[in-house]
Amino acid sequence: MRAAPNRRSTFVAILGLLLAVALAAGTALAAKPKQRAHFTGYTNQPAVEGFRAPVKFTVSSDGRALSNFTFGTFGCFGAGGFRPGVNPYTGNSLIHVAKVKVTASGQISQVATSSYTVQGQTTTTTLTIAGRFSNPKKASGTITFSQAVTGAFHSSCGPAMRTFSASAH
Fold it and tell me: What is the signed CA dihedral for 22, 23, 29, 30, rounded to 10 degrees?
């Protein structure tokens, strides 16, 4: 006589198969970026004087890194006194990260710091960039950052989070 299949073994096998399919689908959602492509886009920070917070970067020749990753922000401290019709996203309102890692499957991941000094006050931004390429010419993700000011005045803020999306042109 043949024994009836064990229901628990069947359930575990099906669950394992579903998990494998889910992991494969998650990896498939990311795509490799177009090599040497220049990307531009925006964060979800509200527009100021009609200007949106930019994000830009260039994909390396091997597709495994983003160079000159730059995004616009007034930080978690904020800012004010904007002149009408003048783009406020210049100078120190642009945060620069030299290099951001990209996995073979198109996932973006980097922890970095960036700093600048004005009148003896140094602002250091610590940030985490995470995201993915949905296709070779489109990327999206999050930028989470905290800031610390040192000098005569000391303060810190954050973390703050912005989402971003960018496309190759």
Answer: 170
Q: Do residues 145 and 155 make contact, with C-beta atoms less than 8 angstroms apart? A: no
Tell me if the domain spanning 30-168 has CATH number 1.10.287.
no
pLDDT band for position 8 (50/70/90)?
A: low
Q: Which residues contact 104 (CB under 8 A, 6 or more apart)?
A: 32, 64
Domain spans of the chain, in order of start = 30-168
Q: Helical H runs in 3-72?
A: 7-28
**Length of the chain counted residue by residue:** 169
Per-residue pLDDT reduced to its tens digit, 30-51: 899 999 999 999 999 999 999 9
What are the DSSP E strand ranges found in 45-137?
Answer: 54-59, 65-72, 94-102, 107-118, 121-135
Q: Is residue 76 a contact partner of residue 145, using CB atoms and an 8 Å limit?
A: yes
Q: Is 128 helix (H, G, I), strand (E, B) or coil?
A: strand
Paired strand residues for 166: 41, 139
Q: What contacts 84, CB < 8 A, 6 or more positions away?
A: 49
